[in-house]
Amino acid sequence: MLSEFPFYALALVTLFAAIAAMTLRNLVHCALCAAAAFTGVGALYLLLDAPFVGFAQLLVYVGAVAILIIFAVLLTCAAETGPGIAFSSSWLAGVCAVALVLAGLVLPILMSPSLDRLAPPVAGAPVKDIGNQLMTIYVLPLETIGLLLTAALIGAVVIAMQDKPDAQPASDVKPPPREIADKDLCLR
Amino acid sequence: MRSARNPLARLSTEMDGSIDQIFVSTLHRIASLAPPAAQPLVSMLLIIAGIMVVFGSCFALTTIVERKTLGRMQNRYGPNRVGPFGFFQPIADGIKMLTKEDIVPFSADKALHFLAPLVLTVPVWLAFAVLPVGRNMAAIDLDAGILFFFAIGSASELSVFMAGWSSQNKYSLIGAMRAIAQMISYEVPLLLAAMPVLMLSGSLSLADIVQAQPPGHWFLFTPWGLAGFGMFLIAATAESNRSPFDLPEGESEIIAGYLTEYSGFKYALFFLGEYLGLFAVTGLAVTLYLGGWQAPVSFLQWFPSWAWFALKFAALILLFIWARATLPRLRLDQLLNFAWKFLVPLALLNLLVAGIWWWTGRAQFPGLLIRWLVCSAILAAAYILLGRGLKDHKLPPHRYHYAV
Amino acid sequence: MLGRAIIQGFIETGRNFVGSYYDPERLTTVQYPEQTLPPDEHARTIPFLVYDGDDPSQGLRCTACTICELECPPQCISIVKDTVKKPDYLGKMQLQPKVFDIDISVCMDCGICAEVCPFDSIKMDQVFALSTGDRQALLLHKEQLAKSNLYFRQIHPGEAAAIDAARAEQKRKAEAKKAAIASAPSGFPSPLP
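Predict the joint structure of the above. Result:
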C-alpha cells in the first residue's frame, strides 16, 4: 500500500482540483484549479513511467491550454462573480447520466480478464522509439494533426485580421497647413 | 522515474580523480558515510543543496556585476560604497528587501497574491536539475530532458497572470496581459531554435547533446548554429522579460506592470525567479549551442569541464547585460511583429538549412565549402528579405505642421 | 540592413565600458563628497559682505543705505544703522550698520541685493554646505557675513578685479584733485588736470 501512496496522493489532488474547478464561484479561480488538475494528470503520467507524455502534458496543457482558458475568461469579461453556484433543476438527470458513463468505463475494466495476467516488464518508452513510431506507423495521424493545426492557425489569423479601410478621405475644408521641411527647423 | 539514470551508477572512468571530477568524487565520499539504503536520498539532497548555493550566490553576484557593468557602459561608476568596490551591495539589498513591509492591497485576491511568487520560483529551481554543469554533473539525466526544461518554463507563465490579476490594479492587469502575450509569442522561436540541435544530435537528453559536440565541433560553428544561437538568445531575452523586451515591467510606462503591488519579500522572490529563469535558459543555451562543458579546441581539454561551463555561462550573462545597456525598449507591436513575422519564419528556414547540413554530412573538401556557402546563402537571403518586411512602410516621412 | 544600428550601439557601449577604465572622458563621475567640482565663476548662493584690508569692522564697505533691505523680494535682510560714522576708501565719513542680519532660510539667492548695491559691498557667495541642526544658526549676523576682499577675488576674480581697478582709479583721481587743490595758488580756479 505504501508504494502506491504517490498514486493516491496525486489522484486525490487531481480530483479535488477538478471538483474545485467546477464549483468555485470566481471563474478565474476555476481556471487556475483546472490548470492544477492538468498538472496532476501530468504527474500521473510521470508515475506511469511515460516521461514524454507527462512533460508534453505539462507543456501543452498547463503552458498553453490553461493560458488560453484564462485569456478567454478575461477577454469576455466573464470574470464577474454571479449570484452563486447555479443549481440546475435537472440535477437528477445529470446524476443518472454521470452514473451510466462511470459504469460504462469502470465495469469493463473490473471485469476484464487482463487483470489476472501479470503486468509485462515495463519497457520504459524511450523517446527514440516514440519518434520512430510516429514517423513510420503513425505518420498519417501526425500529418493530419499538423494539417488541423495549420487550419486552426489560419482561421485565427483570418478572424483577427482587421478589415481594410475603404472609406473615402474627407474633403479639406480648411487650406492645408504650411509644411516646414525638416532642414529648416534645426539650428545648424 | 526509472528512466532517469541514477547519478551514482553512471560514472565515466576517465579522469576519475582529477580536478575535473572533484565535485563528483566529493559527493560520493560524503554520500558513502550514510547507510546504503539512504545513499540515493543523501546524494540527491547534497546535489540540491549544491545547486541552490551555487545559483543563489550567482544571483547575488549577478545583481552587483550587472549594476556596475551597466554603470561603466553609461559612463559612471556602479554602486561602490558598500564593501570593496561595492561588492557587498547584494547583502544591503537583501536586508532592505527582507525588512520592508509586505503590503497587500485591500481588494486584492489574497490567495492568488500570495501564491504568485511561489508559482514562479519553485518550477524555475526544478529547471536546474537537468543542466549538465560538468562531465557527469547533471543532477538528473532524463531521457526527455529538454522537454522537461521547456515544460517547466511554460509553467511559470501562469504566475505572471496570477500576479497581475490578483492585484486588482489596471496597470498590473495590462502588464500581465502584455507579459503573457510576449512570453507565449517568444516560446515558438525558442522551441524552433532548439529544434535543429535536437535533430542533429538525435536525442532529447541534454547529456547526449553535449556529447554530440566534441571540441571544435560545437553547434555554434555551423551556419544554422550561428543563426539558431542568435535566435535562441533573442527569444531567451524575451522569455525572461529582460531589456529590450521588458515592456511588462517598463518602469516609466506602467509603473512596474504586474509587479506593482508587490513589496518586500514577495518582490524579492519575483526578482529571484526572473534571474533564475535567465540563468536556466542561459545554461540551456550553453548546453545546446556552445558545447556545454566541452572545450573549444581539443588541446584545451585539461581545463576542468565545470570551469568551461562557468566561463561560457559568464560570457553569455555579460552579453545579456551588454544588450540591456545598449538597446532601447521595444514597443508591444514591434515586439510581436518581430516574433511572428521575423523570428518564426527564420527559425523554420533554419530547420530546413539544418536538414540540408545533415544530409550533406559526409561531404569531402569541395563539398564542405559548397555546404557552407549554400546554407549561409539561404540564411542570409532570408534574413535580408524578412528584415525588409519588418520596416514600417505605411508611415509617411515625418513633416512638421505649424499653425498659421 | 536590419541590425546595423544595433551593432553600432553595441560598439559604442563596448567602447564606453573599456574606455571607462583609462579614459577620463568616458567616466565623468565626480565622487562627492570626496571629490568636488570647482564652482563656476558666476555661480551664486547666499550673499556676503565685503571688507577691505584686515579689520572687518573698519574696512566694511557697507554704509547702511538699506537699498538692499528694501529691494530684497522675500525681505530677509534686516539693517539697523549705527550713530558712529567711519571713513570709506576715499576718506569720506560714511554711516555703518550696527546690525546686519540675513535669514538664509528665507533668502532665495536671487542676487538682487548685489545688483542694486551702489557701494559694491554685498556680493554673492558660493558656499552651499549650509545645513545645520539648529534653525537659529540660519540667521547670519554681520560678523558671519563679513568676508575679506581677498576671498572675493578668489571666488569672483573678474568682477573683483574690475571693482578694484575702478576703485583704484577713483582713489587716484580724488588724490590728484586733492593734490591739485593743495598745490594751486589760492583764489584762482585750477586748470583741469
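Chains A and C do not touch (no CB pair under 8 Å).
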